[in-house]
Amino acid sequence: HSLDYGRNGYASTKATLEAAEMPYVEKQSTLLYTTESGLIIGIYAEEYTAMDLDLLKRSVAELREQGAELIVYAVHWGVEGHFYPQDHQIEYAHQVIDAGVDIIYGTHPHVLQHIEEYNGGSIYYSLANFTFGGNTWPRDPDTAVLQQEVILGSDGSIKLGKLTIIPCRVSSADTGLNNYQPTPYAPDSEEYARVLSKLDGTYTGSDLPIG
User: Fold this and answer.
1) CA pair distance 81, 112, nearest whole angstrom
2) Residue 13 and residue 17: Cα distance in Å, rounded?
3) 4, 65, 108, 137 - which has most CB atoms within 10 Å?
4) Measured CA distances, 70 to 47, 53, 183 (Å)
5) pLDDT per residue over 128-143, tens digit each?
6) Contact 106, 86 (CB under 8 A)
7) Model's pTM, two decimal places?
8) Buried (b) or exposed (e) across 60-99, using 16+ Cβ within 10 A?
């Protein structure tokens, strides 16, 4: 949705992010980001019409050479309204992790999909909406905050630790209107359990129709 308001809107968004010193990454581009704790995160972004495993491998290698300790692959893929990824996505996701990526962060379906642990990496197939301005009356309000622990070994190695999930809805309003203020669900609520079921792959609800 970065071009919803055309090239001028895209340029304005970039200028705003830069003025706020907010890091961002563009399609088939990389970014290095250093956290307050000193962890160096490398990010590479793609979208489904231009996924290129060879380019990804080269980009991952370049990020490692530049000092990246943890690599996140941000990808726009999947089918809107579907609660499970397609088989070819799963196959490609495994290839991406095998290529040296630590975390895959998926978008586009606008609903939550399950999280998979594979070969030491984590695949978030879809994290739905959070503060998505294109959806004033969302058909599915569920979202989540993920807090990923990263463990630094005594030998300097990095591995993923505990993942904490905070189930949320996209709005603080309970009328269906999205006011773009994500709010945690009560831990003992049906909605809280529903979010967890979507993320652990046990959700049995029907996919949302497109249109």
Assistant:
1) 9
2) 6
3) 108
4) 21, 18, 29
5) 999 888 789 989 999 9
6) no
7) 0.93
8) beebeeeebbbbbbbbbbbbebbbbbeeebeebbbebbeb
